[in-house]
Amino acid sequence: MSVIVEIAVDPIGTGSPPSVGDYIKVAIDVIRRSGYKYEIGPPMGTSVELPSVEALGKLLQDIHDALYKAGIKRIVTTVRIDDRRDKAITMAYKVERVSR
Q1: pLDDT for 18 beyond 80
Q2: For 31-80, what is each residue's pLDDT tens digit?
Q3: Cβ neighbourhood burial of 59 (10 Å; 0-12, 13-18, 19+)
Q4: Domain containing residue 16
Q5: d(CA 94, CA 77)
Q6: CATH of the domain at 28
Q7: Would you say 64 and 77 are in contact if contact means Cβ atoms under 8 Å apart?
Q8: pTM of this structure
Q9: How many domains does the chain have?
Q10: What does the alpha-carbon distance between residue 62 and residue 73 come to, in Å, rounded to a whole number?
Q11: Which class for 28: exposed (0-12), middle (13-18), buried (19 or more C-beta within 10 A)?
């Protein structure tokens, strides 16, 4: 069974103009290197298939560590979790199900 999460990271205190795209790329790179399946978007978040809620904690820690290393002073992260245990679901299944 997989857990599907949507993660939205808001770097604060970047010391640069309002654009945060370069910092979001840092977060996406952490997700990519984790090996988990992910989809960027909608424009305000990224969805990730994880094996457990526990794995989410490690992934978030890795994202925050990378952003602090990149110079971010404060990070606000919003997470939505779809933890369904009665049957296996994937991001593709959820999209296909409503697209039919």
Answers
A1: no
A2: 999 999 999 987 889 999 999 999 999 999 999 999 999 999 999 999 99
A3: buried
A4: 3-99
A5: 23
A6: 3.30.70.930
A7: yes
A8: 0.90
A9: 1
A10: 16
A11: middle
